[in-house]
Specification:
Elements lengths: L6 E8 L9 E14 L10 E16 L7 H18 L3 H4 L4 H21 L9 E2 L1 E7 L2 E7 L3 E6 L2 E4 L6 H7 L16 E2 L8 E6 L5 E5 L8 H10 L4 H9 L7 E8 L2 H8 L24 E3 L19
Parallel strand pairs: 1-13
Antiparallel strand pairs: 1-12, 2-3, 3-5, 4-9, 5-6, 6-10, 7-8, 7-11, 11-12
Helix pairs in contact: 1-3
Length: 320
């Protein structure tokens, strides 16, 4: 039976300059088995919630494709679909101790549900709702990554940085096949959720985590020039997940920027984290709070006010 691992996690999303809406969405969730004990003569208060020892974690980012219909709705619909699947359909508690192949099939099914929901949500099938998605499911020490599109997941271990996902763009696909002919639309997606086709080709991989490992899930607005050396340096130092997130999305750019950073704490760091982690009831998006009263929370979305509407749509699209 696996046990829970203490983590430090933070998510942050910022709309691109010149955009009045954020096309990115993310989610951070802890999965736990629990019951509400209404009455008993045990040494437990009535109406208490009792939790099992095992916990899973779900992290995901999605980037709505700009030249498809309603990119903001596309990414939010996909994220919501996956969250609802984990909550109501996926038997994650039993699968997590099962065979990796069973978890892989369940994650593929989660993305299929999101795909189906996107197709049901739009009447214009020629244009469609399209989004990328990168999902990390952790049941310590197992990590499963499910991925479509060009958002990314990175693993930092002992100061070394590894990209766990492959960009599903034509340029990367040509390089994989050692094709010397440069594609006309090198950055155009060949694989995503929704869009103009019912086909999807998710990548799912499974690795074993170790205490001290760090994950970063990011959308393509973050992965610009000199991103990799910056991320490697940030994850190599002893910065908190919040500090790393703030640094990753900081700057100026036309594209939306979203990051989730997860630190799987070594034993010596757990006591320090227990003294500063807020309860879920204290978590409030900072732009909803008046200035001077905003708490420091592990999950937030920054919304910039007064940004004019974009003059033209973005360049990302699903290629036929």
């Amino acid at each position: 039976m696996n046990t829970a691992q203490q983590i430090d996690v933070h998510g942050l999303s910022v709309p691109g300059d010149g955009r009045d809406k954020n096309h990115d969405h993310f989610a951070i969730a802890t999965l736990s088995k629990s019951m509400r004990l209404h009455q008993s003569n045990l040494t437990i208060d009535d109406d208490s919630r009792v939790h099992g020892q095992n916990q899973g974690h779900l992290f995901l980012v999605a980037d709505g494709i700009s030249d498809n219909l309603a990119p903001t709705r596309a990414s939010s619909t996909a994220v919501d679909s996956v969250v609802q699947y984990f909550l109501n359909e996926m038997p994650w508690y039993h699968l997590a101790d099962g065979e990796p192949e069973d978890v892989t099939l369940a994650l593929e099914d989660a993305l299929k549900n999101a795909q189906d929901e996107l197709l049901r949500s739009v009447s214009d099938k020629k244009q469609g709702l399209g989004t990328t998605m990168t999902l990390a499911f952790v049941f310590w020490p197992d990590l499963y990554i499910a991925h479509v599109g060009d958002s990314r997941c990175y693993l930092s271990r002992n100061g070394e940085l590894r990209q766990l996902t492959t960009d599903h763009v034509h340029g990367e696909y040509a390089r994989k096949l050692e094709n010397r002919l440069k594609p006309r639309n090198e950055n155009s997606l060949w694989n995503a959720l929704g869009g103009r086709t019912q086909e999807r080709h998710p990548d799912v991989r499974h690795i074993q985590l170790e205490p001290g490992d760090k994950l970063a899930l990011v959308t393509d607005g973050v992965t610009q020039e000199q991103f990799r050396p910056k991320l490697k340096a940030l994850l190599k130092c002893d910065a908190s997940a919040e500090q790393v997130c703030d640094n990753l999305v900081d700057g100026i750019g036309k594209d939306d920027r979203t990051a989730i950073v997860v630190r799987f704490l070594p034993l010596e760091d757990i006591r320090a984290m227990e003294n500063r982690t807020p309860s879920p009831s204290d978590l409030t998006a900072r732009h909803d709070m008046p200035q001077g009263k905003r708490p420091t929370t592990p999950y937030r979305t920054v919304k910039r006010k007064g940004i004019p509407a974009p003059k033209k749509p973005g360049t990302f699209r699903i290629a036929q």
